[in-house]
Amino acid sequence: MRKLTIDYIAPARLDELLKVESEITTLRGASMTFSQKLINQDGVVLCRADVLVVCVDSLKMKPVGLPKSIIAEFK
């Protein structure tokens, strides 16, 4: 994860059923951004988040292109 931005809108309550909706909003060479919403059982959005994920080489710790298999899954 490279960056996470969260906007807390309303509190969740104990024992409340919650749903997370997630979609990919950008898909680039070495990164992808997810937009997420946390929604309660009444349909109220409690939280919004944007998550930027970057693929890196595990030895060099430098950005590398996303694997083609991952890109294919999300297109």
From TrEMBL:
InterPro entries per UniProt: HotDog_dom_sf, Thioestr_dom
Enzyme class of the recorded protein, top EC level: hydrolase
Q: What is this protein called?
A: Acyl-CoA thioester hydrolase YbgC
Name the Gene Ontology molecular function terms of this record: thiolester hydrolase activity
Instruction: Give the EC number(s) under which this enzyme is classified.
Output: 3.1.2.-
Respond yes or no to whether keyword Hydrolase is given for this record.
yes
- Highest taxon of the lineage: Bacteria
Q: Which parts of the sequence belong to the Thioesterase domain?
A: 3-47
* Keywords, in A-Z order: Hydrolase
Natural source organism: Proteus mirabilis
